[in-house]
Every structure is written in structure tokens, then in C-alpha cells.
Amino acid sequence: MRNVYIKICGITNVEDALVAAHAGATAIGLIFAPISKRLVDQSTASAVVAALPDSARAVGVFLGQDATEIYETAQAVGLEAVQVHGTNSVDEIQWLAQRIPVVVRAFSVHDVIAGLADGTGASQLFVDSSQPGSGETFDWDLLNGATWEKDYILAGGLDPDNVAEAISTLRPWGVDVASGVELTPGKKDHDKVRAFVARAVEAYQTR
Q1: How far is 74 from 200, CA to CA, in rounded Å?
Q2: Tens of pLDDT, residues 138-158
Q3: What is the 3-state secondary structure (H, E, C) of 96-157?
Q4: Is the pLDDT of residue 170 over 70?
Q5: Residue partners of 3: CB distance under 8 A and separation at least 6
């Protein structure tokens, strides 16, 4: 089996980050979007990055910041991966990709279907519902038969109860969850984190 990509997003503290990593998550998301309930400051983010084992990568999640601010934050925190939402241009994504090892470009499912996700210069694509970050599930049938030039990470309303079905149905390169494993915004339910990772890993092994 290939290495799987399982991201627990919206991490706001070291304890939750370590629970996710030790459960087998290969990435944790640190949100720098000012409007998010899961916004993390640079000091806390730096502490999380420093505490993570080599098996898990920290990914900075950005919305509305320009490329220079994204890069400066990544440098300050020690991020080797960023996930970019919003209206950043292809030139900005390509500029970031020259400076940061992994750049993930996020799109709503409808933008992906419309062909707007190709030619961005990103390392991977991130596919979310029509309201990215809402935690709402979208109609997976929309993606049946669709192909893109990059591997994609599936998000949008995933939780321990549906992640295996999502992997079996859509065969995404990776999966991402935030609200589906939370007690409250920014605080994870550790049992749900462990269940999500375990069921995702099992689904990837058997797909």
C-alpha cells in the first residue's frame, strides 16, 4: 500500500496535534485565515511544528492573504507545506511553489468540475464543498469520472462514519477533516480523531 495522506485540520494546540500524529495522521492543519474560529497565532503554530514527529507534516491554511504574507508566515513558523484558499492568482501560486516544498491549492467542487483547477502550479489540489470550510458534505456523484492533472485531497463534511465510504467511492489521494472530529471549534475529540484515522487507513488498505 502506498503512503496515505490523512490530514486533521483546525489544530490549535500541541496536545491535539500529538494525538493526531500518534494516531497515524500524516498531516495536521494550522489555520491562519483571520475569519476562522480555528485561527492559530504564530507562537502556538511554531510550538506545534516543533513538537510534531517526523511522521506528520504541519500544513498552514490561508485565506485572503497574498503570496508574500503566506511565505513570510511559513518562514516564521517553520512550515514546509501550505494550503491556499481564496483568489490568489496562478502567478502567486507558482511563486510560492518556487519557495515552499508543498503548495496545495483549494477549490470548491464546482470550480473543479468547471476546469478551473488545472494549470495552477500547485503540488496537489484540495476539493471541498461549494462553501469551503463549512464542514458540509457535497454530492460525491459530482466527481464520478472526473479527472485532473494533480492528485487531490477530499474534504467537506467527512467524519469517522463516512470517511471509509468516501475513500471507497471516490479513491482520493488524501482526506481532510476538521469539524467532523471536534468537541468545539479548535478542540478535537481524541476518540473521533483516532477513529477517523483508523477507518481511513483501513479503507486505503482495502480499496
Answers
A1: 28
A2: 888 888 766 666 789 999 999
A3: HHCCCCEEEEEEEHHHHHCCCCCCCCCCEEEEECCCCCCCCCCCHHHHCCCCCCCCEEECCC
A4: yes
A5: 26
Positive/negative CA dihedral, 34, 76, 194, 150: positive
All residues at 6 or more sequence positions from 205 whose CB lies less than 8 Å from its CB, including other chains: 1
Angle at 25 between CA 45 and CA 82, to 5 degrees: 45
Q: How many CB atoms lie within 10 A of CB 203?
A: 19
CATH number for the domain including 108?
Answer: 3.20.20.70
The whole model's pTM is what? 0.94
Percent helix, strand, coil in the chain (nearest 5)?
Answer: 35, 20, 40
The set of catalytic residues is: 9, 128
What are the tens digits of pLDDT across the range 2-11? 578 999 999 9
d(CA 179, CA 157): 8
Domain that includes residue 40, residue range: 5-206
Label residue 179 left, alpha or beta by phi (over 0 means left) and psi (-120 to 50 means alpha): alpha
Nearest Cα to Cα of residue 83 among 101, 114, 58, 62? 62
Residue 35 to residue 54: CA distance in whole angstroms? 30
Q: Is the dihedral of CA 84, 89, 90, 94 positive or negative?
A: negative
Instruction: Note whether 8 and 25 are within 8 A (CB).
Output: yes
Q: Is residue 6 a contact partner of residue 26, using CB atoms and an 8 Å limit? A: yes
| Counted domains in the chain | 1
